[in-house]
Amino acid sequence: MKFSSGATTLSPLVITLPTATGDTWTVDWRVWQPTERAVLCFVRQEGRLLLIVKKRGLGAGKVNAPGGRIEPGETAAAAAVRETQEEVGMTPIDPTVAGEVLFAFSNGYNLACTVFVAISSTGTPIETPEAQPFWQPEVDIPYERMWADDHLWLPLLLAGRPFRGAFMFDGDQMLWHQVVSG
């Protein structure tokens, strides 16, 4: 698997783990393919990060960044802008790719997510049926309210370091991870 950021590949490439039900589950990252592709868009402003409490869908109740699935024919960058507009009423200006995170879930769902960062935006955050936005100081990220993987790669985004991560989840529980940077 080649990383678009130029980072090195995953090692080991084949992972077998037990699930909560006692079954075993194997992911071969050499041939892994996403079920869907999505984006996250982190807007940074004056030492703060725009975050949301997700109201519905995958990760409902968790803190995350605005984002969602890429529509057919849409670029990842266009999806990052659209999703941020739809979820919080703001338009990120010139979002750039910060990294990529790959998720394999024990139920068979696989998600590839391009992570963007924007250092400027227009508009004021508004609550929508999808998200409750809030500004959070970058020095006080609420990792305990986020997906279990976020604390592994979000500091790299905040430090301006490109990254790629792969994660295996059984429900909300992270069973395996690997993050590479550079």
Provide structural commentary:
It is a single chain. The chain has one domain (52-181): Nucleoside Triphosphate Pyrophosphohydrolase (Alpha-Beta Complex). The chain is 12% helix and 45% strand. It has helices spanning 76-88, 150-158; strands at residues 14-18, 24-28, 36-45, 48-54, 63-64, 67-69, 91-93, 96-105, 110-118, 120-122, 131-137, 163-170, 173-181. The strands form 3 sheets. Strands 3, 4, 5, 6, 8, 9, 11, 12 and 13 form a 9-stranded mixed beta sheet that branches. Mean pLDDT is 93; it is low at 1-8. It is mainly β. β12 and β13 form a beta hairpin. It contains 2 helices and 13 strands; from the N terminus they run ββββββαβββββαββ. 33% of the residues are buried.
Distance between the termini: 16 Å
Average pLDDT works out at 93
Q: Which of globular, elongated, flat, extended, rod-shaped describes the shape?
A: globular
Derived structural class: mainly beta
Poorly predicted regions: 1-8
CATH class assignment: Alpha Beta
Beta-strand residue fraction: 35-45%
**What do we call the CATH topology?**
Nucleoside Triphosphate Pyrophosphohydrolase
Percent of residues in helices comes to 10-25%
Largest sheet entry:
9 strands, mixed
The structural domain count equals 1
* Number of beta strands: 13
Count of DSSP H/I helices:
2
The CATH architecture would be Alpha-Beta Complex
The Rg value, from CA coordinates, equals 16 Å
Order of helices and strands: EEEEEEHEEEEEHEE
CATH superfamily: Nucleoside Triphosphate Pyrophosphohydrolase
